[in-house]
Design brief:
With about 500 residues, the chain is mainly beta. Helices cover about 10% and strands about 40% of the residues. The structure holds heme D (DHE).
Length: about 500
């Protein structure tokens, strides 16, 4: 009898040893308590294809097997065999059975308030306007650093995977962070406490703060919404279901504030429109103006007057200039190499206002004359990079080549008048180095060694000598309060 059963198993190719793992059951047993039974995230991040896009199946297998250092994610190799790990990685990379819903009710239910109004002044002696806020992606923390002594004064755990520049209230007291998982966190830089949090989306791109500091706009990929929150307590003020005039839904690539226009400017990913949303209290708060384009634009640079917006064409080879007053496209520029216009900066040269942008695919910085929208120079760098930074008080702009496998550790320092690279730094040979931020005076430049055992390195911005090295866990970006609230010309806004 035993022999018969065994041959039947062999004949049918079935049996306990060969049964495909039940990924849904494995998920509920091992993952749901941290990532939510619906995979929308809980104490751990959401496990949905849109959120995991950068990790992919292979990356997910590695994280499930080995865990993620510096986070609560432990490895499961001791309890799950290879097949189960693969099945789980495929499961979390596949769309969930029912489309995720994240509307007003879900957003409001996620809000946590912990206000602390006790402090009439900062609880530390450092200059509150010369603080640096450092986002450490390695173990999902934020450090607050004194910008005069370059000493960390506080460190706290953040939401998983903060991304993009934090946004500051005009007085510099509060800072708002956004995470790729849609969480918005309000932090009080005087009391050094989180005062409110809300999950405004399941997969968010970035946030913007209105000119008066009263409203926070959140750009979402999932769902297709733009959410406006009250900056006071992060309560929901308005939700735009984002769609073109014919009702076709679109993801939101990014939202920016345009202070002189008292508006939010919104880039739509899937439809050829820019939205401008009024943040003026009168006559009609949050009124929407649609600007029709010939193509969707991704990444934006604004000229200092905020009249013109330069947007990257999705083909990665062009940029289009839109006059926000007339609502018309007024120029097209050849900008091959996937310009990263969100990192663009501007300065005066020979009496002309120029802007410059790095590229995500080509090793060069393109310099554009904004008076006639012509590319006037392409400064070669060792490789493609993400960021470009300067300051009103320095003659130099600093660019990384962090997307080049061979030159990811190099920083090019460019003279803003001659448009020549005057120095190349290699702060930590072999390690990805990117993102520069100046202190309030422009006399020091802080550079990130963006690795797990990384560092923020303080340089003398005139002599390029290293002054101090602060060990940090993958410091992604760092932001100086004064430069941010004054919209310093060398920083992205
Ligand atoms: Fe970013 C800003 C989009 C990948 C680090 N990034 C931004 C902004 C956008 C954007 C729209 C502006 C937000 C703001 O400040 O309001 N980033 C994108 C992408 O589309 C891209 C290429 C792919 C993606 O996965 O989204 C991308 N970005 C990255 C990274 O891989 C980086 C290097 C590390 C990370 O995410 O962990 C990264 N992005 C940053 C940083 C800023 C940023 C540090 C803020 C720059 C600043 O100084 O203001």
């Amino acid at each position: 009898m035993k022999l018969f059963a065994a041959s039947l198993v062999l004949a049918l190719g079935i049996g306990a040893a060969h049964a495909a793992p039940d990924a849904a059951a494995l998920y509920q047993t091992h993952c749901a308590s941290c990532h939510g039974s619906d995979r929308f995230g809980a104490t751990g991040p959401a496990l949905l294809p849109d959120n995991l896009g950068r990790l992919g199946k292979r990356g997910a297998e590695a994280v499930i097997g080995e865990g993620r250092a510096g986070t609560k994610m432990r490895g499961f190799r001791a309890v799950l065999d290879e097949q189960s790990i693969k099945a789980l990685a495929a499961y979390v990379n596949a769309p969930p059975p029912t489309a995720p819903v994240w509307g007003r009710a879900q957003i409001e239910a996620s809000r946590v308030l912990t206000p602390d109004l006790s402090a009439a002044k900062p609880v530390f002696s450092a200059d509150p306007l010369n603080l640096f806020v450092v986002v450490e992606g390695g173990d999902h923390h934020v450090s607050i650093v004194d910008g005069d002594s370059f000493t960390p004064i506080y460190r706290f755990p953040s939401r998983f995977a903060l991304h993009g520049g934090p946004k500051f209230t005009p007085d510099g007291r509060y800072v708002f962070f956004s995470s790729r998982d849609g969480w918005v966190t309000k932090f009080d830089l005087w009391t050094l406490k989180v005062t409110a949090e809300i999950r405004a989306g399941l997969n968010s791109r970035n946030i913007a703060l209105s000119r008066d500091g009263r409203h926070v706009a959140v750009a979402n990929y999932l769902p297709d919404t733009l959410v406006i929150l009250s900056a006071a307590d992060l309560s929901v003020e308005k939700i735009f279901d984002v769609a073109d005039s014919n009702g076709k839904a679109s993801r939101v690539s990014a939202v920016y504030q345009a202070p002189p226009r008292d508006s939010f400017v919104v880039a739509l990913k899937d439809t050829p429109e820019i939205w401008e949303i009024s943040t003026a209290a009168q006559p009609d708060p949050f009124s929407l103006r649609r600007i029709a384009l010939t193509t969707p634009l991704d990444d934006f640079f604004f000229d200092p007057s905020y009249r013109h917006v330069l947007g990257a064409h999705q083909d990665g080879n062009r940029a289009i200039v839109v006059d926000l007053d007339s609502g018309r496209e007024v120029a097209t520029l050849p900008l091959a190499g996937m310009p990263h216009l969100g990192s663009g900066i501007s300065w005066m040269r020979d009496g002309h206002l120029v802007m410059a942008t790095p590229h995500l695919k080509d090793g060069k910085i393109s310099v554009i004359d904004t008076t006639n929208w012509k590319v006037i120079a392409e400064i070669p760098t060792p490789g493609p990079g993400y960021f470009l930074r300067s300051h009103d008080n320095t003659p130099y702009a600093w660019a990384d080549s962090s997307l080049s496998p061979q030159h990811r550790d190099e920083i090019s320092i460019i003279d803003k008048q001659s448009l020549k690279v005057v120095r190349t730094l290699k702060p930590a040979p072999g390690k990805m180095t990117a993102h520069v931020e100046f202190d309030r005076s422009g006399k020091h430049a802080l550079v990130s060694v963006m690795e797990k055992n990384g560092a923020v390195i303080v340089y003398d911005a005139a002599t390029f000598q290293e002054i101090k090295r602060l060990p940090m866990a993958k410091p992604i970006g760092k932001y100086n309060v004064y430069n941010k609230i004054t919209f310093s010309e060398g920083t992205s806004h």
